[in-house]
Automatic annotation (TrEMBL):
Repressor found in the keyword field: no
Segments crossing the lipid bilayer: none
Sequence ranges assigned to domain Amidohydrolase-related in this UniProt record: 41-360
Active site (UniProt): 259 (proton donor/acceptor)
The name this protein goes by in its record: N-acetylglucosamine-6-phosphate deacetylase
NCBIfam families: nagA
Length: 367
């Protein structure tokens, strides 16, 4: 893979070589500013930590849906991701999580790597569900233990103000699970208490959480004041560019997620998000009442949107690759360095995808 390569030390003009084990064997080249030539950009593969589906399929549909979703998002540069769940009755949710756990054991040809599960439902506030269906659940140790045993549970979203959830945060954090605050009516004080208990992130910042007001600063202010990491949907529909810029100034490692649905990569029409019917039109996906219901965003478009609102390409690339990998504690993805997985996206000068390599396999374009 030749071009302007974004390494941890900065841009290098040269060539990246993958070994037979699917990892980066070496990078040959010289430091050079990418503006000095017309070569393509060679970036770390994108890492998406909130993804409900794509290519017409939803992760809640079970194992048969997974390969199509992973291939759909690989087309747009996503080389690894978490499968996000929706609120559902315990037996339905557990069945879905078990199927996703089995899918994590391998990677279909031509597809992104499934890293684990983001349990976005059911531990939410019933007053701020967004497009999550009724009814949310009260956490129980028994149910939680079943989810943890069924799949690599990497992230759990919950509303910290709900009864018992501070204890749940402590239990999950002790297991190495990242706990994010979201779908919440919690106060600033609720958020601070949750962070002190071990929460480490915020789910789709600004959306489905209490806003910043100067005498009631809410969940948003807690993120801006205290967070090292937070996720945000940069489709420019969920969050205004001005709010994105404010978050970028406040949160050191703010990173992008798609919150993609089955409608991502598909034509306008009727799709589903968990048990909900959703409608794709005019670049968005919504419930029948007009509520935004996830997105049709792909990570390559997230990158372009971040650049469009003023980020330089290296900074934007870190927010779709390095920072989400760091948030999960993964050192060998999200960066281009010797020994890391050869998860690589090659973009042309217009930032359109030319080729995608997952663990050394050329999944899109030509080698």
């Amino acid at each position: 893979m030749k071009g302007n390569i974004l390494t941890p030390a900065g841009w290098v003009f040269g060539e990246l070589h993958a070994g037979p084990d699917g990892r980066i064997a070496r990078i040959e080249g010289v430091p050079a500013a990418p503006a000095g030539n017309d070569a393509p950009f060679v970036l770390p593969g994108f890492v998406d930590l909130l993804n409900h589906g794509g290519g017409g399929q939803d992760f809640m549909d079970g194992a048969a849906a997974v390969p199509a979703i992973l291939r759909a998002h690989a087309r747009f540069g996503t080389t690894s991701l978490l499968a996000a769940t929706m609120t559902a009755p315990h037996d339905v949710l557990l069945c879905a999580v078990r199927a996703l756990g089995r899918a994590c054991a391998g990677r279909p040809p031509g597809a992104a790597r499934l890293l684990g599960v983001h349990l976005e439902g059911p531990y939410l506030n019933p007053g701020n569900l967004g497009a999550q269906p009724e009814p949310p659940a009260t956490a129980t140790p028994e149910h939680l233990a079943q989810y943890l045993g069924a799949a690599p549970l990497k992230v759990v979203t919950l509303a910290p103000e709900m009864p018992g959830h501070l204890d749940l945060i402590r239990q999950l954090a002790a297991r190495g699970v990242r706990v994010q605050l979201g779908h919440t009516l919690g106060t600033y004080e609720d958020a601070v208490a949750a962070l002190e208990a071990g929460a480490s992130g915020f789910t789709h910042l600004f959306n489905a959480m209490t806003p910043l007001r100067h005498r009631a600063p809410g969940m948003v202010a807690a993120a801006l004041a205290h967070a090292e990491f937070a996720e945000l949907i940069p489709d420019l529909l969920h969050v205004h560019p001005g709010a994105i810029r404010a978050a970028l100034r406040a949160i050191p490692r703010l990173y992008a997620v798609t919150d993609a649905t089955a409608a991502a990569g598909m034509p306008d029409g009727v799709y589903h998000l968990g048990s909900q019917t959703v409608y794709k039109a005019k670049g968005s996906v919504r419930l029948a009442d007009g509520t935004l219901a996830g997105s049709v965003l792909t990570m390559d478009q997230a990158l372009r949107n971040l650049v469009a609102i003023g980020l330089d390409l290296a900074d934007a690339a870190r927010r779709v690759s390095l920072y989400p990998a760091q948030y999960l504690g993964i050192a060998d993805r999200g960066r281009l360095a010797e020994g890391c997985w050869a998860d690589v996206v090659v973009l042309d000068r217009a930032l359109s995808v030319r080729s995608v390599h997952v663990e050394g396999e050329c999944c899109v374009g030509t080698a």
